[in-house]
Design brief:
Blueprint: H1 9-23, H2 28-37, H3 45-57, E1 61-67, E2 73-79, H4 93-100, H5 104-116, E3 131-142, E4 146-147, E5 150-152, E6 155-157, E7 159-161, E8 164-167, H6 169-176, H7 178-183, E9 195-196, E10 199-201, E11 206-212, E12 224-230, E13 235-245, H8 250-257, E14 261-262, E15 272-280
Helix pairs in contact: 1-3, 1-4, 1-5
């Protein structure tokens, strides 16, 4: 496909479904960036919106609502049928394409998209495309308090289990790394291949942080919420396993783990961690 080539509405439908598949839950703006820069198709926001609406009506996409830093609602889109979202590979697009179009152009687009995707898409008696897992023991130092978000007695507490503070690392870290992965051109949907061990710790270094309630849909905040948190200087230690084939290089992923990672409630302001050790097991 020529760089900067324009495509029709039907072909754009193929592309937006494909982008939702590899990106996970992109916004219209993120779709435009991927289509123009990676697939090298000349398009605009209106054409992408029209294509998204068309394939959404066909039951292929669903809309999800998120909030930005100012508390404003943001639309994100994902592939609706779970058979086509896990794992996010081009092979699954072959089941989607017949519902969108059945023309020679569809086959051309398939070949072009396959060219920008990872190696190893052909199936049949081969090892999985994403494989060769390794495990590291990692240790973080808390730079700004890690806050809890469980409502309790008018405030928000840390989670507890059997008398110990529970840090749900597998959930929190996958969420924390999404921006770092996106910056390294790794689809955020691939966080499903990561596994962090949970942390259960005894800590006496607990703090309370008063935070304003974020505005919703343009309305002002409604008061102050007090969050319980783990104070600065505490260390968090866990293990992480991740694939080195079809994901990213070991060294680059460790770099990703140390790149401005934030955990817990109010993570856009609090919960900053410093990676102080990463040892291969």
């Amino acid at each position: 496909m020529e760089k900067g080539r324009k495509v029709d509405r039907t072909t754009m439908g193929v592309l937006v479904v494909y982008v939702c598949q590899i990106e996970g839950r992109p916004t219209i703006k993120e779709m435009k960036e991927t289509i123009t820069k990676r697939i090298e198709v000349d398009t605009n926001t209106k054409q992408i919106k029209d294509a998204v609406l068309a394939v959404k009506k066909r039951g292929l996409l669903s809309v999800n609502y998120d909030t930005d830093d100012r508390g404003r609602s943001v639309e994100r889109f994902s592939v609706k049928d779970v058979r086509w979202t896990n794992p996010p590979e081009l092979a699954h697009m072959k089941a989607v394409l017949p519902k969108l179009m059945e023309t020679e152009e569809a086959h051309i687009i398939q070949k072009e998209m396959e060219g920008i995707h990872e190696e190893g898409q052909k199936k049949g008696g081969r090892l999985p495309d994403i494989r060769d897992y390794v495990k590291y023991r990692i240790k973080y130092k808390i730079i700004t308090p890690v806050l809890g978000g469980n409502p309790d007695d008018g405030g928000c507490k840390l989670r507890r289990l059997n008398g110990k503070t529970w840090i749900p690392m597998n959930l929190w870290m996958k969420s924390a790394l999404k921006i770092n992965l996106r910056e390294r051109n790794v689809p955020v949907a691939k966080t499903q291949y990561l596994k962090f061990s949970e942390i259960f710790m005894e800590t006496k270094n607990l703090v309370e942080v008063a935070c304003p309630v974020a505005p919703i849909a343009g309305r002002p905040g409604t008061g102050i919420t007090v969050h319980e948190g783990i104070g600065c200087g505490e260390e968090l230690e866990c293990t992480v396993s991740f694939p080195t084939r079809g994901f990213m290089d070991e060294e680059k992923f460790i770099e990703c783990l140390g790149d401005s990672v934030h955990l817990g409630a109010k993570h856009k302001e609090y919960g900053l961690l410093e990676l102080i050790d990463a040892t291969k097991m």
